[in-house]
Amino acid sequence: MAIATLKELNVELLKQTWEKMAEKAAQEKMNGEAFLMVIKALGKQLGINLTKRKALQAIPFAGVGVGSAMNIAFINDICWAARRCYQKRWLMDNGKI
Questions:
Q1: Structure pTM?
Q2: Residue 19 maps to a domain
Q3: pLDDT at residue 90 in the model
Q4: Lower CB density within 10 Å: C or N end of the chain?
């Protein structure tokens, strides 16, 4: 759902960018400076798109890290609870309590 929404947003952003570049080209004469401006805008948009894609690729790795940390904490809590239960049972069996 979120990825589909991001893709739709990406399509809309690309449409707006191309429309703006077309408007600039229509308003100005297509000379060397205008061509460089168009290339610069295109490069900037490509950089933004690549950054977003790489950021989205990092999300699963972040999930792996968080999941691993939660599993370790849970197992650690279970180990301490088991140790305390065993100690209590040992104390009861040996008449210390």
A1: 0.40
A2: yes
A3: 93
A4: N
Q: Is residue 89, in this structure, part of any structural domain at all?
A: no
Rounded distance between C-alpha atoms, residue 27 and residue 72, angstroms? 61
Does residue 81 belong to any structural domain of this protein? no
User: For the chain, what is the domain count?
Assistant: 1
Any idea which residue has 């295109």 for tokens?
Answer: 42
For 24, 51, 60, 68, the CA distances from 72, given in Å and listed in that order, are 56, 32, 18, 6
Expressed as residue numbers, the domain containing 23 is 2-68
Look at residue 20 and tell me if it is in a domain.
Answer: yes
Successive 10-residue mean pLDDT values, the chain, 97 residues: 69 67 64 68 77 72 82 92 94 88
Q: Give the H/E segment covering residue 61.
A: helix 32-93
